[in-house]
What does this fold into?
Amino acid sequence: MNLRTVAAVVLLAVGLFGVPPLPAIPTSTSVQEPSDEMKTAVKPVLKVVSRMSPIDRLWLQNIYENFAKVVASDGIVDEPVVTSTDSLRATHIAVLKFIWKGMANNSPSKYEGLAEAIDEVMSGVISDESRPLTPEMRKSAVELCRAIAWAGLGKDQ
It folds into this structure.
């Protein structure tokens, strides 16, 4: 079959059946609204996010929404990797290096105060102390990551 025949068949099919519908593209991400407690916890992040570009806010949302999934699903199939507050912090740093710096091509200091605000809220909710990660702490870490993703919306919610 030559190119003209293929083009004729395609045009005939479009003429008879119409143009197939294109897939819907979401115009915004869907971020779960956190509890009032977590909204209060992420206020320092909200202050910095208000100065971020829309694309970087989207990166922040996606990073923390997916990090929440990683922490929540850790240990479901294999032995857990995130077993302590130290390993949670190490995983958090690795995720930021690979995605925020590596994929989004942002320096850690691109937004003054962002790293400090996130460290502050992580320490406040998870703790600075080195200790085993209990199921309650894991749940709090997941909620916090989702709240940081929510903060990435950049609104004064």
Summary: The mean pLDDT is 86. The longest helix spans residues 54-73.
